[in-house]
Amino acid sequence: MSSLITNTSSMVALQTLRGINSQLDQTNNRVSTGLRVNSASDNAAYWSLATTTRSDNGALGAVKDALGLGKASVDVANTGLDNVRDALQKIKEKLVTAAAPDTDRAKLQTEITSLINQMKNTADSSVISGGNWLSVDSGGAGFNASKEIVASFSRTGTTVTVDTISVDISKVKLYDAADQSGIIDKDRTSGGSTIAVSGIDISALTGSAADLTTISEYTAIVDEALLDLTDASTQLGAVTSRIGSQESFVKALIDANDRAIGALVDADMEEESTRLKALQTQQQLAIQSLGIANSSSQNILSLFRN
What we know:
The protein is mostly helical.
């Protein structure tokens, strides 16, 4: 039965067109954003997981930056230790030369003093981000010998954990203004002499047996300091290795999280492109169908005209 009041065919065609347009809007949104889950309304569970993982990735990015800064701090300290080691080695060589007969020990002392000043300048200038691990004042307000480098961020349910790599700078410091307990400025005992490296003075020494013994004791003190420097560099080297390993892990974890987010919310662009073309074709057919349905009323009117 045909009716001028209610055009059932037109209503069905219109409903079909609305459904196609809705799907087309959704597909267009996926194509334009590249996401099949763009909001909680698309898929609440996947959207929640993806949002949390994105947040964790942001925290991991901060961890990566902190590791980079920590590595830079360790590198600065290591560079300072290397330079001081070179200077200390030269002082040792000057002392060995001073033990030879008929040596101008006053001139050698001038060189030793210059090297001692160079070591202090190196330690004082080994600064990054306002921090100095080689020249410290352990008696200063807020001093903390334990330097914590943020190394990881992890989540278990709703509980998050931030782990750190600890560096004890009391084992690598060269100078300490509070108590002269650094590798270079602390008092050392060798034979009958107790002195700090910076207190070495051979300018007035002669070739007497007693003075040669003193030079030998100085040499032993410098050699002990060199061994302590080697231990300090070894500790910082271990920290550098651990930081490098953690940096690689954090980068891999960020990449893994990105892949997980993609699996949850990314649109399959090949599939969406094919769906878009199909829906566009269906839309055209639905529009034609609606036009045909609407023309049925005109056909009824033509019967009356006849």
